[in-house]
Amino acid sequence: MTPEQYISLTEKIIWPLFLIIFYWLNRKSFKKIFTALVSRIESGAEIQISSIKVGEIPVSLPSPTKTEKVTHNHLAILHSSWRYPKKDKEFGEPMYVIQVIIQANSDVLDRIEYVKYHLHPSYPNNLQTKTNRANNFELKELAWGESNIGAEVKVKGQEESINLSRYINLSGTGKNLLNK
Questions:
Q1: Helical (H) or strand (E) element with 114
Q2: Residue 13 backbone phi and psi in degrees, to 5
């Protein structure tokens, strides 16, 4: 091997090796930072790095005009969860409360007739219809595992329902979405 090849090889190895050593020496601090970020994201707190935002609750979805149909672009499913240890013994699992609401502008929420939630088949009552516009068609349930939830949104005066879905992850520190 020529001296130039040794230098090139050393340059390719030294930076990754430096980063590995730096991480190893500071791994406890990196773990604390990572844990704090995950906790903030799960709790719904907004985190912004450059132009990327994570954990932000949409507040300004578009509204259709009075003559336009409501579409999936005007609605969102939001969820939160928090631990509910009172039920752990009864179910033999760590239990959580999940809260699901429909997020939309007020005029869009006024046009919704009902929301039919489709929960995981393991729920005894896995199809639940909500009609209370005042609480954003809220669904609250107990959960011990993560799953997808579907929402069939029936809009007054529209033939077809709007189908939405969301993955429900469990966080022990979520907050009530209706306490604004």
A1: strand 112-118
A2: -90, -35
- pLDDT, tens digit, 9 for 90 and up, residues 100-126: 999 999 999 999 999 999 999 999 999
CA–CA separation, 36 and 33 (whole Å):
5
CB 115 within 8 A of CB 135: no
d(CA 91, CA 116): 26
Cβ contact 150:79 at 8 Å:
no
Tell me which long-range contacts 83-89 makes (C-beta under 8 A, separation of at least 24).
Answer: 83/172, 83/173, 84/142, 87/142
Please give the backbone phi and psi of residue 59, each rounded to the nearest 5 degrees, phi first.
-115, -15
Q: Which neighbouring-strand residues pair with 83?
A: 96
pTM, full prediction: 0.69
- The rounded distance, in Å, linking the Cα atoms of 10 and 5 is 8
- Output the six-digit token pair for 66: 């009075």
87 contacts 98 by C-beta, under 8 angstroms: no
